[in-house]
Design brief:
Layout (H helix, E strand, L loop, with lengths): L1 E5 L11 H4 L8 E2 L2 E2 H11 L5 E5 L13 E4 L5 H15 L5 E6 L7 H11 L6 E7 H7 L8 E2 L4 E4 L2 E5 L7 H9 L4 H8 L1 H9 L5 H12 L3 E5 L12 H47 L30
Parallel strand pairs: 1-4, 1-6, 4-5, 7-11
Antiparallel strand pairs: 2-3, 6-10, 7-9, 7-10, 8-9
Helix pairs in contact: 7-8
Length: 319
């Protein structure tokens, strides 16, 4: 499957992250010693179900590293336009492409096994759009100070994921509607208003809207087959929108690097010890197999025991 990574965002002076970048792309902000997007690319390289990467918004001059092929697509200026350009690139590379993974460049805690889990879950069915959500308790257990924006449903409070799977036909249908929905992605209430006022009524007034009801209602209004994927991991949903979230992920990934460094050091130390002791053990083992030659016993010399017996006393007969 192709992974389309969107990295075209450049914070304006009014953006809280502007002071960290000052005109550079948000995706290139430093996180624990490397660009934020590099963490995402590393995860996609680890994922077995991702074959190639389409990177929208940056060029090869950005100095990013990937073992898998990367295809660069210029920034189109708007998020939806970037997604559509990425999907069109996937179709140009392989006209038989059906599904693609849409990945944001600001989820540096993402892991390869999480990507594989998502794709496996999605491909159990043949829907048009798979949208990931993270329950509040999952997010706040992993990142208690994240201060995410949550949608309050009857059965759970949730926030959206930043890696999703879609059928390629979504790039040609309902584009005006998608433009408005994506433009209001940080405001669940505005998105609900776009889809329908009765959804707002269920969401805000009666508090009767469950996740399943929301999926059914929204899919019906958009004339698509949608499916919600409930994450048990917070990392795919922990994006960087504000400075405190950037600092949280910087600290988190720095700790991860420290753990990996200690683990690598322990492995190297063990290997060095084995390298040093192996010849000695081998020599000792070889020596134990070779038995020393038995010493020949000295020939016994037969010796006579000489014992001096007292001479018998001869008595003379007397007449």
């Amino acid at each position: 499957m192709y992974a389309i990574v969107t990295a075209g965002g450049i914070p304006s002076p009014e953006d809280p992250l502007y002071s960290f970048l000052k005109g550079d792309a948000k995706a290139l902000v430093d996180v624990a010693g490397k660009p934020m997007i590099q963490w995402v690319l590393d995860a996609l390289n680890e994922a077995r179900q991702i074959e190639e990467i389409i990177l929208v918004g940056l060029s090869a001059k950005s100095g990013l590293v990937s073992a898998k092929p990367i295809h660069y697509v210029p920034n189109q200026g708007r998020m939806l336009a970037n997604l559509v350009a990425g999907i069109n690139k996937a179709l140009a590379l392989n006209g038989k492409t059906e599904y693609v993974a849409l990945v944001s460049s600001d989820i540096p805690a993402l892991k390869g096994e999480m990507v594989d889990w998502l794709i496996s879950r999605c491909m159990e069915t043949k829907d048009d759009l798979y949208y990931g959500v993270c329950p509040r308790e999952v997010m706040e257990t992993r990142f208690p100070d994240s201060k995410r924006t949550y949608t309050h449903l009857k059965d759970m409070d949730l926030c959206g994921a930043d890696i999703n799977v879609t059928h390629v036909r979504m790039a040609t249908e309902h584009l005006d509607l998608w433009e408005r929905l994506i433009g209001n992605r940080k405001s669940p209430m505005r998105q609900a208003a776009i889809v329908g006022m009765d959804l707002i009524w269920k969401l805000m007034v009666t508090r009767s809207l469950t996740l399943d009801m929301a999926v059914t209602d929204i899919s019906k209004r958009l004339n698509i087959k949608g499916r919600a994927i409930v994450w048990e991991h917070a990392e795919p949903c922990m994006d960087v929108d504000k400075p405190h979230q950037l600092e949280i992920l910087r600290a988190d990934l720095a700790k991860q690097q420290a753990r990996e460094k200690r683990a690598a050091g322990a492995v190297a130390k063990k290997a060095e010890i084995e390298k040093t002791t192996a010849p000695k053990l081998a020599a000792k083992k070889t020596a134990s197999k070779v038995k020393p030659a038995a010493k020949k016993a000295a020939p016994k010399v037969a010796t006579r025991k000489t014992t001096s017996k007292p001479k018998p006393t001869v008595r003379k007969k007397t007449k």
